[in-house]
Design a protein that fits this description.
The structure is a single chain. The protein has a single domain (about 1-225), classed as Muramoyl-pentapeptide Carboxypeptidase, domain 2 (2-Layer Sandwich), CATH 3.30.1380.10. It is globular and about 50 Å long. It has about 230 residues and is an alpha/beta fold. The chain contains 6 helices and 9 strands.
């Protein structure tokens, strides 16, 4: 009888394993359920994914992956929301306060990104240099990366930057030099204020900033609606 039950449940076990590998084919340690996430927050409150707009209401959002206005040309997120780990949001609040003195503020395109979306990006992106390799996961998956730009607080309009968000052009590089003085000034202002508050720009995307200490946070695969 025990042997019969084992044979009956064996295909189900293989199916569950296959489904698990499809979501995490690289064997990474990923928090992918709310109970595990809650346990991590109980262990360390800094692990909490904070909704940025609720914590810093003056920050503007333009969550492109909740629309078709992105390099994938399709909706990737079910909700236009932005989350990041608690210390990340605390520093974004400080950045916003510093910019306010100049009549400026932040607009966020993307922040925490579930790991499953990173898998989709890599499978379908034509240029793999502009998407994170899922064999290691992304800083976005850890809640420790933000994509953003500067806006005028008076008009709400974005300041001119070298390229639009998610551009694959050479001008998107953080140190690209052949720019007008005004555009270069805007880009460098964004980079300098973010660096002063614990972020590092990546070399090929002027809009992408990793939080210093991202290594201390786990990869996550929890959709927005579960947070």
């Amino acid at each position: 009888m025990k042997r019969l039950l084992f044979l009956l449940f064996l295909p189900l076990a293989f199916q569950a394993c296959a489904q698990k590998n499809a979501q995490n084919p690289y064997g990474l340690k990923i928090i992918n359920n709310y109970i595990s996430y809650q346990a991590s927050v109980k262990e360390n409150p800094d692990n909490r994914l904070v909704e940025i707009k609720k914590a810093v209401p003056s920050i503007r959002l333009d969550i492109r992956y909740a629309t078709k206005n992105n390099f994938m040309n399709r909706v990737m997120y079910s909700q236009p929301r932005a989350f990041a780990r608690k210390p990340v949001v605390e520093q974004l609040k400080n950045v916003q306060a510093a910019l306010r003195k100049q009549g400026l503020g932040l607009k966020i395109y993307d922040a925490y990104r579930p790991y499953a979306v990173t898998l989709d990006f890599f499978r379908q992106a034509a240029d793999k240099d502009f998407v994170a390799n899922p064999n290691k996961g992304s800083k976005h998956n850890r809640g420790c990366a933000v994509d953003l730009t500067l806006v005028s607080l008076k008009t709400g309009k974005e300041l001119p930057m070298p390229t639009p968000f998610d551009s694959f052009k050479p001008e998107a590089a953080a140190r690209y030099a052949n720019l007008t003085p005004a555009v270069k000034k805007n880009r460098d202002l964004l980079i300098s204020v973010m660096q002063r508050h614990g972020f590092r720009v990546i070399y090929n995307e002027w809009w992408h900033f990793d939080f210093n200490g991202w290594q201390n946070y786990s990869l996550m695969d929890i959709p927005f609606e579960k947070l």
